[in-house]
Write a structure and sequence with these properties.
This protein is an alpha+beta fold. The protein has helices at 9-31, 37-40, 43-70, 77-108, 114-168, 172-186, 190-209, 218-235, 257-267, 302-315, and strands at 216-217, 240-245, 252-253, 277-284, 287-293, 324-328, 331-337. Helix 1 packs across helix 3, helix 4 (77-108) runs antiparallel to helix 5 (114-168) and helix 6 (172-186) crosses helix 8. The radius of gyration is 37 Å and the shape is rod-shaped.
Length: 343
Amino acid sequence: MPRFFIHNAFFRLGAAPMFGILVYLLIILINNTVEQLNETFNNQELYVCIALSYIAFESMRLVIWGFNKKLSSERSIQTRIIYQMILTLLISLTLVGISISVYFRWVIGFSIGSSELNLFLIVYGAGGLLYNILFFSQVFLFRENKIKIEEERVLRDNLESEFNSFKNDVNPNLLYESLESLIITLHKNVDYADELIDNLAGIYRYSIVNRNKELIPLAEELQAVNYLTAILNVKYQNQINLDMQVNEDNVHLIPGSLIVSIDHVVRNTLIAPHVPLDIKCYLEDGYLVMNHTLNERLVTPEDSQESFEKLQRSYSFFSEKPFVQVKADQENYIKFPLVRITN
């Protein structure tokens, strides 16, 4: 249950004296003028107003506490406002009216007049309304914060789900195409086929070993990228060239980032002997940038695009900088936000 300010000890000790003083000054000013304030000021009457404020505030606080215990899950907020307003004002004004009547009767020696009693009730009734308004303003603030927190939780859960889904994805098309390349290679060069099997095993071993890790060093990702490019070059006849211009150790990526991105680029690019695919990777302004010349296919494979979009969403889980893809001047730039881990 949220902690409301009306139950705070400092508020309970300080609010009643402040309100009591204001009530006393207001009553004096209603019955007299500002010039007569010094003449009519009475410490005993001031203390009575402060005591009445304690009675009013504490009675309303106890009523609200009872509502929180019994009715918080049974009534809508609109219904509660009506019931709480009526009950808190009824109880607090009844106690204030009885207390001020007793004071006049047993201390001053005569009964309080109806006009004076009505004045006290009006002033303390206005105070009771203000007390409830302040309370419900905090209630709505808590509700709004709860909604925001829940939205953040749902967003985080979705991101975690996307992140885990991305890490656990195994591209079946890459496997099938690699096996097809392996079958063709077996008829030509058995030794090269063995190397192809080692590269394929290296990629899936890398995927299995790192599937439960959130981040890995860039160097480990580059080793898996070398396996991938070797496999892809069997199909594309060594027309894929990767130039890594990165010499920094403390750079981490989501496992499979470069693998998914290179696979996405290859599947969406026309590659031929006279138009090879040259991919450059370098660091720039807090990003690892992958750059190549655009030569797009007419049809984009859906599975490739889906994996790439998952990667984009997964990076928002680790970095405030966005994972972006920019196409300009016949060049494609894929930018991975750098994640550095400090010891």
